[in-house]
Predict the structure.
Amino acid sequence: MSGRTVERPEDLREILSIPFSDEQLAVIAAPLEPGVVIAAAGSGKTTVMAARVVWLVGTGQVRADQVLGLTFTRKAAAELSNRVTTALSGSGIIDAAALENSEAQTVTTYDSFAGQLVSEHAPRIGIDPAEHRLTDATRYRLAAQVVAANEFPLVEWNDRRLIGALLGLDTMMTQHMVTGQRIEEFTADYVGGLDEAPLWRGAPYRAVVDAERVAAERLELLGLVESYRRAKDRLGWVEFADGPGSNDRRTGTRGVDDAARAVPGTTAGRVPGHLQRTGHPADNLVQWPHGGRGAGPSGDSGR
């Protein structure tokens, strides 16, 4: 530690050589409590987050190793971690050697951090910590085996596209805790509504025909997802996203709440609202055919 401190938010302009606006400084020096910042892409969110870490560490509110940053992608995690490290060492709050040892912040992806929590606290929520966790490569190979063992009367895609669609739908179902039954029910209602669509000269509109085709393809892909999950269960393999979600489906939300209370320094009441099981995300997911763009967070969400 260099011992340098920060007295006022305005000092960060000189310390970091960045002309922060008053609005940005308000975010940087906001109270140490939950908050949301919404800004357009390229507006400096990552820079502001790094400066906030400098402010919190420089004012003695937290240590650098108490900072946790979570992102959706590994690329974003690497960039954020580098920005924070550069800001802390460049400001003189902490020297580079200390950051390379034990005083650095933790920045990772949501799935990776969740997987770490499950590995460390698996017995608290009834999960075997020795279960084999799938890597991205192994996950792809298993999906490829499932695709090769099935026939597809409706989906006329090449294997690569099928594998991507399978894994995409499986991921979105897991992250949003949507069951296959829920998707089937939604699809039945959706197709029923299409049957009542107006006709053009006695024939359905092209858009209606395309929507019916996509709905049928989605059900076929759902069958692939179920085959993929049975294969994982048979082999005893799990993924990062399977930990909390699969346990929640087996034991109910109460099991996760009990686990939260058992972990030192946490309470179930501190679980963010968007992570609590409400069922609402299902209505967003099932409106997208294959768990593709728009069905969930990917990359920079603008927040």
Observations:
- Residues 206-235 form the longest helix (30 residues).
- Residues 125 and 251 are 9 Å apart (CA to CA).
- The radius of gyration is 23 Å.
- The chain is about 55% helix and 5% strand.
